[in-house]
Model the fold of this input.
Amino acid sequence: MALLGTPLIAGIAVAAAALAGKYSIQAWQAFKARPPTARMQKFYEGGFQPKMTRREASLILGVRESTPPDKVREAHRKVMVANHPDAGGSHYLASKINEAKDVLLGKSKSGSDSAF
Done:
């Protein structure tokens, strides 16, 4: 009787492995097909200072104060795309984002650069 049960158990094990493989493949394909979601980043939530500092500018753009200019421009582009007035963003925020880029790139003038 033991010899007859061995092929039956082996068949059940093969069928279980095949089903597990099938569902694993389906789950992986569903995972890959889902829309990409942005990783949640902590954005600057504070109010604005009368004269923007390098620290405030780096918080707005989400970079360090010592970030190279090309990385500052890249961060500016990403934040501006998310807050551009043509895409439903605020003109005030867009001006502050531009001011932050100018401060970090050393292009700021005396006083506040904000149009507001």
User: Anything to note?
Assistant: Helices lie at 2-33, 54-61, 69-83, 91-104.
